[in-house]
């Protein structure tokens, strides 16, 4: 990607397009978030954050499966981990939608999970830490450590109802 004020491209931009996956929630209109003082105001229709979170969580399960089957193939785990942390730490997701979305998204790609811990399995955390500096830090405005993000994301996921029926079980336990 190259902006007008730059002589050389700053990074490559990769766009992944899938044709075999249904968008489960209606699109929402969002404004462009940017850090530039004179960037144009723009808005467009996009995936709801809940659907993005469900797909990122599923991507971590797919990475874990590839890693266990082949011993490699989880290189994007650090980016998915960061994206999940960024979205979830801002509290902008309706967590009650996630169990149903996750079940449907995971079924499509034949991956399963039993608890929140499955999304941040030790082998995925190792890959995220190993790839953090090379794959992530050149693109984020603040230099967070992998350990900080993994610890905070682990706490965030532990409080979310991700398994169907989990939110009912939690409310029964609180009564």
Radius of gyration: 17 Å
**In sequence order, what are the helices and strands, one letter per element?**
EEHHHHHH
C-alpha termini separation:
53 Å
Biggest sheet descriptor = 2 strands, antiparallel
- Give the strand order of the largest sheet, numbering strands 1, 2, ... along the chain: 1-2
Approximately how much beta-strand content do the residues carry? under 5%
Quick rundown:
The chain has 175 residues and is mainly alpha-helical.
Can you characterise this structure?
The chain is mainly α and 175 residues long. It has six helices and two strands. The protein has helices at 49-70, 77-88, 98-108, 122-136, 146-158, 166-174, and strands spanning 28-31, 43-46. It has a two-stranded antiparallel ribbon. The termini are far apart. The relative contact order is 0.14.
Write the layout of secondary structure elements.
Blueprint: E1 28-31, E2 43-46, H1 49-70, H2 77-88, H3 98-108, H4 122-136, H5 146-158, H6 166-174
Helix pairs in contact: 1-2, 1-3, 2-4, 2-5
């Amino acid at each position: 990607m190259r902006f007008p004020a730059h002589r050389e491209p700053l990074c490559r931009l990769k766009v992944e397009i899938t044709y075999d996956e249904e968008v489960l929630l209606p699109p929402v209109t969002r404004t462009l978030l940017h850090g530039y003082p004179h960037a144009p105001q723009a808005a467009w229709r996009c995936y709801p954050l809940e659907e993005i979170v469900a797909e990122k969580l599923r991507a971590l399960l797919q990475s874990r499966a590839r890693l266990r089957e082949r011993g490699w193939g989880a290189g994007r785990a650090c980016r998915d981990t960061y994206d999940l942390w960024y979205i979830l730490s801002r509290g902008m997701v309706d967590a009650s939608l996630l169990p149903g979305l996750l079940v449907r998204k995971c079924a499509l790609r034949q991956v399963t999970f039993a608890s929140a811990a499955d999304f941040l399995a030790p082998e995925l955390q190792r890959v995220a830490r190993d790839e953090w500096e090379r794959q992530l830090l050149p693109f984020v405005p603040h230099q967070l450590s992998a350990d900080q993000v993994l610890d905070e994301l682990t706490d965030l996921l532990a409080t979310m109802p991700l398994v169907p029926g989990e939110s009912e079980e939690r409310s029964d336990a609180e009564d």
